[in-house]
Amino acid sequence: MSRISAAFADGPAFVPYLAAGDPDYESSLSYVEALERGGADVIELGLPFSEPIAEGSTIQGAIVRALEAGMTPTRYFEFVEDLDVDVPLVCMTYYNLIYQFGEGGGPEDFVRRAAAAGIDGFVVPDLPAEEAEPLREACDEHGCELVFIVAPTTKGERLERIMSQVSGYVYVQARLGTTGARTDLSGRAEESLERVAEWDVPKAVGFGISTGDHAQRVIEAGADGVIVGSALVDIVAQGVERGDPAVTVASRLEGKARELKEGALRGAAANERPHPERT
Amino acid sequence: MSSHTGKFGEYGGQYVPEALMPAIEELEDAYERYVLDNEDGFMDDFRERLADFGGRPTPLQKAHRLSERYDRDVYLKREDLLHGGAHKLNNALGQVLLAKYMGKDRIIAETGAGQHGTATAMACAHLGMPCEVYMGRRDINRQRPNVFRMRLNGAEVTPVTVGRGTLKEAISETMRDWATNVEDTHYVIGSVVGPHPFPAMVRDFQRVISEEAREQMIEKAGRLPDSVLTCAGGGSNTMGLFAEFVPDEEVDLYAVEAGGSSLEVDEAEGVAPNSATLSTGTEGVLHGSRTRVLQDRDGQIMESHSVSSGLDYAGVGPELANLVDRGRVTAVNVADDPALEGFHRLSQLEGIIPALESAHAVAYVEENHADLGEVILLNISGRGDKDLETVLEETHDRDVENAPEMETFAGTGGF
Ligand SMILES: Cc1ncc(COP(=O)(O)O)c(C=O)c1O
């Protein structure tokens, strides 16, 4: 069993996202480590790209801060090596950075270096299944997983095409649009979850989840995991704005992570209880 | 994917978020049925509107004083006379009409110079579609008249403040809107860029330029030109002008890019002070397609620069990039200063105030006419009214040699 599969094996997985290097290298290391203490089962670690077309304003802000603080693909791999965490790491980035790395002209060099640094998988928002063959092959070769996103608009043949390529987990996009914390929860997650119900990979729901209650409801709706990015990045951004010390921000992140993880656990517990209508 | 793979050699493809893929497949299907197969008479409807609303065909004009100056025949294809003042309407009208045939009820677009936004706003008013245009903050400041024109036609103009606030950021932001509202919205992309089918489809809407120009050349000059030139930003007027000439091997094709202030790049700052993507860019993936882009060693996209906002873009159409790689099209570039001189030259010698974008091609002929053969076809992709404020300032700041006396403007608040 791969490390990512193992992370989903017992109970609901909490999968937080942060951009590596936001707002600076050292603080960012401590923030990612705080997520693990707060209960993260897998961490999606963003490698910032200058044109993040799938990102809303919150994560765009994180990417700008990280780039300005000097994050590059090379630094990113050092960052991964410097991280003191045991949970599996998924690299979230855009295809051009993967394509250009090393000799350039293909994903092989990037995947080899990432795997050596300790990355377990990839999710690439601008790489649909149609264009993913070279990356898929490099992942197979280096023992990494390739996570795909299923959107509310993904139907029919497209589902099959993605199913045949996905590994690690499937990222179920809870709503249309870009990333960003929301106060309400979209009903479309359930619809999308139904469409992938038969798939033999864990289903993790993301886009707009910001509270423990959201996390609970997503797990109750049948998800195996919850992905949370913007609600955590908001905490980093707020810390930057107020000039808070990194330890303060780290402990807020740990607290938020715990809230989300506990929400997910409540959802799982509710699923265990016999359903009133059905008894 | 359909039989039309959307690949031009290694370039092209569909590098977009999954949420957009179903819409892109739907668009591919609509492109094939309506544009390629003329289903429901779509193309007839399009051509009729281009004539009645747009004013096509645009003239091919012999430029007598330029011809005399260079001692060879220079012909101008007058896309500046198309409704709206640039070639952009060919594409905007085609796509808005297509969206209507597809049953979409909202239009979004990005714009750099504001020409594509203006054309889209006009087409939307003409066809009764709501329209929202994303435009970089910096471009809004550079192109105020066009912003007002869009507003007059009923479009919303939304400023984009991330990054340097130019075309690149505007495209990213429009893609985000599309990913949010994809079910009822069509994204009218402004050039031959983006994921398949946009590069092929936009070329086919712009192809009318060369369909007319090739015939008009034969009519007026009795022969094909030796060389065909135009400016290239994303490359839509470029592909439109070249499309019908590509099979004519004896005709040389020149894509004139913006050389900006220098071809050197500043890696530390992530800035290329030019937009010479075809001349200096390297293969990469940007805004949905694999093509040549201005990027640093890591693959981060650089901020580009040009005195003309319509050329100020770090990418270029994949088909054009492939034609350059294959040697069929020659990529050249012209810096800001000579482009400004070209602007003044065409204004003075021919009574045509060109867009700053088009002025780059005008300037290339000045320096290189000796290598361009006996008969030159030069596309004037747009008129310069939108650029008057910029030219007023830049002419003053730079001491452009052939500019008119600027004393009259001193103290008028222009600069
Ligand atoms: C007059 C004019 N010419 C050329 C361009 C460059 O676009 P393209 O390279 O797609 O023709 C623009 C873009 O705004 C323009 O307004």
TrEMBL record, chain A:
Instruction: Please name the PANTHER family in this protein's record.
Output: TRYPTOPHAN SYNTHASE ALPHA CHAIN, CHLOROPLASTIC, TRYPTOPHAN SYNTHASE, ALPHA CHAIN
InterPro entries xrefs: Aldolase_TIM, RibuloseP-bd_barrel, Trp_synthase_alpha_AS, Trp_synthase_suA
Task: Name the EC number(s).
Answer: 4.2.1.20
List the catalysed reactions. (1S,2R)-1-C-(indol-3-yl)glycerol 3-phosphate + L-serine = D-glyceraldehyde 3-phosphate + L-tryptophan + H2O
Q: Which organism is it from?
A: Haloplanus ruber
Q: Tell me where the signal peptide lies.
A: none
Task: Identify one Pfam family in the record.
Answer: Trp_syntA
**Role this protein plays:** The alpha subunit is responsible for the aldol cleavage of indoleglycerol phosphate to indole and glyceraldehyde 3-phosphate.
Name of the molecule in the record: Tryptophan synthase alpha chain
Q: Subunit notes for this chain? A: Tetramer of two alpha and two beta chains.
Q: Does the keyword Amino-acid biosynthesis apply?
A: yes
- Listed pathway(s): Amino-acid biosynthesis; L-tryptophan biosynthesis; L-tryptophan from chorismate: step 5/5
Which GO terms fall under molecular function for this chain's record? tryptophan synthase activity
Keywords of the record, alphabetical order, are: Amino-acid biosynthesis, Aromatic amino acid biosynthesis, Lyase, Tryptophan biosynthesis
Q: Which family does it belong to?
A: Belongs to the TrpA family.
Q: Where is the active site?
A: 44, 55
From TrEMBL, chain B:
Q: Which reactions is this enzyme annotated as catalysing?
A: (1S,2R)-1-C-(indol-3-yl)glycerol 3-phosphate + L-serine = D-glyceraldehyde 3-phosphate + L-tryptophan + H2O
N6-(pyridoxal phosphate)lysine: residues carrying this PTM = 88
Q: List the Gene3D superfamilies hit by this protein, alphabetically.
A: 3.40.50.1100
Q: Which cofactor does it need?
A: pyridoxal 5'-phosphate
| Single GO MF descriptor | tryptophan synthase activity
Describe the location of the Tryptophan synthase beta chain-like PALP domain by residue ranges: 54-381
Return the EC number: 4.2.1.20
Entry keywords, A to Z: Amino-acid biosynthesis, Aromatic amino acid biosynthesis, Lyase, Pyridoxal phosphate, Tryptophan biosynthesis
Looking at its record, which EC class is this enzyme? lyase
Work out whether the entry's keyword set contains Lyase.
yes
InterPro entries documented for this protein: Trp_synth_b_CS (IPR006653), Trp_synth_beta (IPR006654), Trp_synth_beta/beta-like (IPR023026), TrpB-like_PALP (IPR001926), TrpB-like_PALP_sf (IPR036052)
Superkingdom is Archaea
Q: CDD domains given for it?
A: Trp-synth_B
Could you tell me which pathway this protein works in? Amino-acid biosynthesis; L-tryptophan biosynthesis; L-tryptophan from chorismate: step 5/5
Subunit composition and interactions: Tetramer of two alpha and two beta chains.
Q: Which family does it belong to?
A: Belongs to the TrpB family.
Q: What does this protein do?
A: The beta subunit is responsible for the synthesis of L-tryptophan from indole and L-serine.
What protein does this entry describe? Tryptophan synthase beta chain
Which organism is the protein's source? Haloplanus ruber
